[in-house]
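Exercise: predict the fold of this chain.
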Amino acid sequence: MVGSNDLNKSAKFYDSVFISLGIKKVKTTGKYVCYAQKITLTK
């Protein structure tokens, strides 16, 4: 888990980093953002 003072800014950063690793955003709330590997989403 990684903390942040600016959730939107950090989510934008991790979205761009994780896409190249095959990791996708799966849920966003006002308090957290969840990511998962794309291969685990199809099982």
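Check your answer against the key: The mean pLDDT is 86.
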